[in-house]
Amino acid sequence: MEITKALHTDHMEMKKLIKAVNKSEDGAERKRLFTQFAELLVKHSRAEEKVVYDALIKTGEEEQEEAGYEGYTEHGLADSLLAQLKSGADPMSPEWSAQAKVMMEILDHHIKEEEDEVFTQVKEDFDVAERKDMGEAFEAQKDKVRA
């Protein structure tokens, strides 16, 4: 599968899961959904960094390099918030709920920016065969990541 399609598929699943986390009014269900979300987020992020962001950085083009480093930075912020959520004892507490809401907002922003800008850069810098290879590498890398 071509890399932007693979990324988009994960993006839609993550958005669905984090929205369900935020909508749920049952603590056990929230924890279960959050665990699924967290695993996908970590696997997706680490694979995307290796396959997409590193490739953009290696182009040597300033705009692409910046996009790669911005992606790493945004993933770092999401990782920090993810750690806070994982350490939160009560998924029904106001603090945990606020953090989950911010995670959804950060994710929405990141996905919109990535799909509007980074996907365009990837399509400009890599031909269809390269993007298919990147998609395969992305899926293989996700399988290697321990969430």
From TrEMBL:
Highest taxon, organism lineage:
Bacteria
Known Pfam families for this protein?
Hemerythrin
Membrane-spanning segments: none
InterPro entries referenced in this protein's UniProt entry, alphabetically: Hemerythrin-like
- Domain Hemerythrin-like span(s) in chain numbering: 3-121
Q: Which PANTHER family match?
A: HHE DOMAIN PROTEIN (AFU_ORTHOLOGUE AFUA_4G00730)
Name the chain's protein: Hemerythrin-like domain-containing protein
Query: Which organism does this sequence originate in?
Result: Sphingomonas horti
